[in-house]
Amino acid sequence: MNNRIRGDLAEIAKVNRSKRIKLADGASVPRIGQGTWFIGENESRREEEVAALRLGVELGMDMIDTAEMYGDGRSERLVGEAIKGIRDEVFLVSKVYPHNAGNMRLARSCEESLNRLGTDHLDLYLLHWRGNIPLEETVEGMERLVEQGKIARWGVSNLDTGDMKELLRIAEGTHCVTNQVLYHLGSRGIEYDLLPWQKGHRMPVMAYSPLAQAGSLRKGLVENATVQEIARKHEVSPLQIMLAWTIRENDVVAIPKASSPDHVIENASAGLIQLTNEELWRLDDAFPMPSWKVPLDMI
Ligand code: NDP
Predict the structure, then answer these.
(1) Is 224 in the pocket of ligand 1 (CB under 6 A)?
(2) What are the residue boundaries of the structural domains of the chain, listed by start?
(3) By alpha-carbon position, which residue is closest to atom 44 of ligand 1?
(4) Are 248 and 275 in contact (CB under 8 A)?
(5) Which of 60, 174, 177, 233 has an alpha carbon within 20 to 30 A of 92's alpha carbon?
(6) What phi and psi, each to the nearest 5 degrees, are found at residue 289?
(7) 158 lines ligand 1 (CB under 6 A)
(8) Each residue of 183-220: b (16+ CB within 10 Å) or e?
(9) How far apart are the C-alpha atoms of 1 and 5, rounded to whole Å?
């Protein structure tokens, strides 16, 4: 284990388990969970990916995010393999395609996800992004799935502030527990209005691509001198600093995707990094939040 990894594994697990975020219905989730986009696509890496996810759960990153879209169900199948025997320890999240998010199709999609995941319920089911099916119909379908015990709760993804307001005007739209959106140090648009709005509604943001896909979503992010210097000071990598930055307050849950145990350990140990106010100001200087409304960033 190199010096970027702070603390031993037991300490990492202990800290991550002790610092959790409450959803509006009282359920608790870790500040750092695990994404699974592109996981399960390469047979030769299957064993390592399963081991990586299981290690992540051991280290307190016990929320796993997947979707029917990812690899046409291959990600869900791999997650199903990874959670075998530890289903009760995992907060399991999947997402439905917008074109499947109405009437009978929603129930069918959910059932197919459950089959691939080898479980009888999801802890959270999200509308992947807004499509043509009216939100009312999706809310109604989600509520039905809750009544049937197929899902414990539901939420949305890639909805901007206007869409969220519209959602909450629908009867039972207030049961939405989260909105999963793109958020990393190089993309801070949600801080202008969506993040404060969700905070006001006790609805934590679930941050996807918190590592900006290892920096590839924004040139100059990982290489930035301030990020590099702060990383050196903490003896961690720039990506770990980016992850610690994303969860710096108790209103964001990050779901980095890692397919190797080494990356999983690095991500889990980011939960131990405490950025100082001075470091946060310097990062603000290097990557300011916008002072005007920008359209929701998404990939
Ligand atoms: P991330 O920002 O999580 O970056 C993933 C990349 O970073 C992978 O290439 C991974 O490599 C690499 N990586 C992870 N940890 C480390 C590390 N410690 N050091 C170096 N490299 C590292 O990108 P994603 O887009 O995957 O976002 C995370 C998750 O969010 C997705 O997997 C998915 O579950 C969800 N998502 C949701 C979307 C939505 O529309 N709702 C859209 C996009 C993502 P490696 O695999 O080799 O470890």
Answers:
(1) no
(2) 3-286
(3) 208
(4) yes
(5) 174
(6) -75, 150
(7) yes
(8) bbbbbbbbebbbbebbeeeebbbbbbbbbbbbbebbee
(9) 7
Task: Locate 2 and state its tokens.
Answer: 């190199």
3.40.1190.20, 3.60.15.10, 3.20.20.100, 3.30.429.10: which CATH number matches 3-286? Answer: 3.20.20.100
Q: Of 287, 288, 237, 289, whose CA–CA distance to 265 is shortest?
A: 237
Query: Would the CB of 187 count as within 6 Å of ligand 1?
Result: no
Atom of ligand 1 nearest to the CA of 263: 18
Instruction: Find how far residue 33's CA is from the centre of its chain.
Output: 6
Q: What is the pLDDT of residue 103?
A: 83
Q: Within 10 Å of residue 279's Cβ, how many Cβ atoms?
A: 21
pTM of the model: 0.97
Task: Quote the longest CA-to-CA distance of the chain.
Answer: 54
Active site includes 125?
Answer: no
Torsion of CA 275, 276, 277, 283, to 10 degrees: -50
Q: List, run by run, the mean pLDDT of 10-residue segments along the chain (299 residues).
A: 61 96 94 98 96 98 98 98 98 98 95 98 98 97 98 98 98 97 98 97 97 96 98 98 96 96 97 97 97 95
